[in-house]
Target: Delta(3)-Delta(2)-enoyl-CoA isomerase
Amino acid sequence: MCTLEKRGSLFILTLISDDHEHRLGPSLIDFLLSALSQVNSQAINGGFALITVAHGKFFCNSFDVPWGQSDARSCLHQMVDSFKSVMSALLSLPVPTIAAISGHAAAGELVLALGHDYVLMRRDRGFLYMSEVDLAMTLPEYITALMRSKIEGSAARRDVLLKGMKVKGEEAVRMGIVDFATHDSEESVVEVAVRLGDRLTERKWNVEVYAEIRKSLYPEICGVLGLVSKTIVAPSKL
Model:
């Protein structure tokens, strides 16, 4: 479902599946929680960053719901609710986080990507897509709070959430959804993410301070998730 590898100062979290769609289901959610817990415990001394990647056509392709079953929508609602714990763990992680989107990112997978501090995307293929308006499903409060926190501009949020717009790389940059989209292959977007991660880890920020500043930067989504920020004054390294 996913692997976690430590390469020097970088943790590389890779989504894996036989069909390369990496759908979010109970097993993947459990794997993600376990991986984020490992990063949290091992990054205590600072100087680390997390990069999330995936191989194939999809960065991640929606929730894994058996639509042929009569209780499919009930299953989806339960899964979306359980995914809150992943977002809580990600947003409280005490290290810089980077999502390297090498393919499509739909619904919950776009939510997963936006939970990172930095989002990189391929220019030549792939799109971002919130499918709920097309599926006739409302959004839980924590997802709309994340969208308001991470996507600047009411017009951009309208097009993503109310129009179900499929947004490609360069357009996603213009809309303020992703940071960079100048990469033309899966390998290149990961390489850029690694370079960014290396630059960030050189700063060796205090891990507690980093996590608390992130919480204070996004008070709405963190409040919805129950992540309470606190004041920390750590000894300066300057």
